[in-house]
Amino acid sequence: MDSELKCPKCGSEHVYQDGSLWMCPECAHEWDPQAAGETADDAVKDANGNLLADGDSVTVIKDLKVKGSSLVVKGGTKVKNIRLVDATDGHNIACKIDGIGAMNLKSEFVKKA
Fold first, then answer.
1. Which of 21, 32, 74, 82 has the highest CB neighbour count under 10 A?
2. CATH number for the domain including 31?
3. Could you read off the pLDDT of 56-101 as tens digits, one per residue?
4. Dist CA 12 CA 104 (whole Å)
5. What's the CATH code of the domain at 106?
6. Is the residue at 102 inside a domain?
């Protein structure tokens, strides 16, 4: 067993390998440590739980007020070519929206198109 490897979900040291996946007997989490972008710390998921990546297109699922203006991003607006960013305030998607311009969105308010 790899003494350095811990479960990314619960932090347990009691993990074991099953084929190409690693398993945690405490929380039943399965993961592939070689898969890029799928660790618990840096995975960005949409409202439906789908993994998002740079360059994806997403659709806004509800009306969102633009802070500091009277503009509103309507639900159903399609946003192309998103960029994932590290943000402490929860806005982890940088994008450009037609008619509004550059802005940041929270991944919980979009779904993968």
1. 82
2. 2.20.25.10
3. 999 999 999 998 999 999 999 999 999 999 877 889 999 999 999 9
4. 35
5. 2.30.30.40
6. yes
H-helix or E-strand containing 55? none
> What is the extent of the structural domain holding 62?
57-112
* Domain identity same for 34 and 65: no
> Are residues 64 and 33 part of one domain?
no
Given a contact cutoff of 8 angstroms between Cβ atoms, the answer to whether 10 and 26 are in contact is: yes
DSSP class of residue 51? B
**How many separate domains does the chain show?**
2
Q: What is the pTM of this model?
A: 0.63
Two structure tokens written together for 39: 């660790």
DSSP string, 63-101: -EEPTTSS-EE-TT-EE-S-EE---TTS--EEEEETTTE
Close Cβ partners of 46 (under 8 Å, ≥ 6 residues apart):
52, 58, 107, 108, 110, 111, 112
Mean pLDDT, rounded, for 35-55? 75
Q: Quick one: pLDDT at residue 11?
A: 82
C-alpha atoms less than 13 angstroms from C-alpha of 38 in its C-beta half-sphere: 12
